[in-house]
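B., you asked whether I could sanity-check this one before it goes into the benchmark set. Here's the sequence:
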Amino acid sequence: MKRADILESLPRHGVFDLAVVGGGATGLGVALDAALRGFSVVLLESHDFAGGTSSRSTKLLHGGVRYLAQGNLSLVREALHERATVLRIAPHLAQPLPFVMPSYRWWQTPFYGIGLKLYDLLAGRAGLGRTEFLNRNEALQALPGVNPEGLRGGVKYWDGQFDDARLALALARSAEAAGAQVLNYAEVTAVRQLSGGEQPLSSLQVSDRRGGTSFELQARCVVNATGVWVDALRDRTRPAGHQGEASHMVSPSQGVHVVVDRDFMPGGHALLVPKTRDGRVLFAVPWLGKLVLGTTDTPRRDLPREPDAFAEELSFILGEASQALARPVRREDIRSLWVGLRPLVAAPAAAEGGTKVLSREHTIVVDANGLVTVTGGKWTTYRAMAEDVLERCFDSQLLPRRAGGQSATHELLGTARAGTATTVPVHDAPGLHLYGSEAAQVQQCPGAANALGHGLTEAMVRYAARFEYAQTVEDVLARRWRVLFLDAVEAARMAPAVAAILAEELGTDPDLATFQALCARYLPNSPTAG
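And here's what the prediction gave me:
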């Protein structure tokens, strides 16, 4: 359904069973699960789908190797199960990826190897491949470009990799196909509980940020899935007389990622340094033809839509990567620099240990006014989080209980049947394979032969506008096609051509100037970076 049609139909819909506020991984997962159970669902996102944290992950579907050291086996086991589920329901966007932990001391191979064998055991039938001990030559062959000085060997294990923003898009489109109505650039400015009737209703005031209009809709249950911004929505929905009771569910942590050319470490394996000088891990992950280095874990009090890297974070990644790789990584080697805010669950006792000891698990709270808030967790477990949210809605009698489980087997839009499309690893350069079974439909749009650069064609931009909810240049070049996250200079070069196509398709301003300013912020030499 076109955006204009959704805007026209929503105020006249009547009462929705469920309104989800927030179009990131968790909110989209809730909307899809609820729609598959037969509920009437509307999802409202103030910016673009996955425009915040959910497009800025490390692109890994993982059980959490570092959580093994913390003894949190239940979290690891659940995540490994959910990892297998995502790989099954979206194979065009998520595939297994081999990792290698290099060993520079005699004890590291057996020490880390034992832990990773436990990782295999916890995965059980959901495992992706067995852990292997590598000698020096095998480690060098798996990781061309790794620092060879003092290298003794390594441990190879398996995890998953995916395209986070396109997986979010697949969830949004799958939810719509299941009957949900999803709308980006629709900001919920107020939620109030209506009195009267056997079951309380909530009224949501919504502002259309693209059209400048506003409207109201009603729902029996409202889920706050706005990630690091859940506290702000809770505060806005408190009844009169309770406005001073500030919410504090989230302690945000900032993660910085640096993207360089693939020739720093060619090949199909990822590198994991399990313990850097301050105890954090470092990844070097091949992704869409580039190499992603990161990530940091730094507390942050403010919640900007576009966070900037702190100077010490950039220095940390460059320094650790230069030690791990044979070739030093310099600021001028950086193609893109992007930052995400993690919604870690606040815990008073965690203050002394920093964000590393805050919970990665999710928390669900039902306020007295009926608002259901969920935060925490990670991309890998989005589906399990959605099930937990709906269970809480049932237990609180905000929704009638209905059987679930469909989301574990429901293939997302684009999943190809055997023989209908070719699956290409996500670490390879971007191409039509990211559309899965819809690649032929993309090619039917005008301009399939008109290449704009970085694998993007005019037809892909038109498809994004017609079928993928794209409204702005940023929507296309940051999330429908990941050029901004791969090469900010190239993204700026491509932007005018993309803007012209969007303006023709939508008849609205595609915000070219805004995107060009954003490109500068994704470079390490911009005034705001480092």
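One thing to flag: Residues 432-521 form a domain with the Helicase, Ruva Protein; domain 3 fold (CATH 1.10.8). Otherwise nothing jumped out at me.
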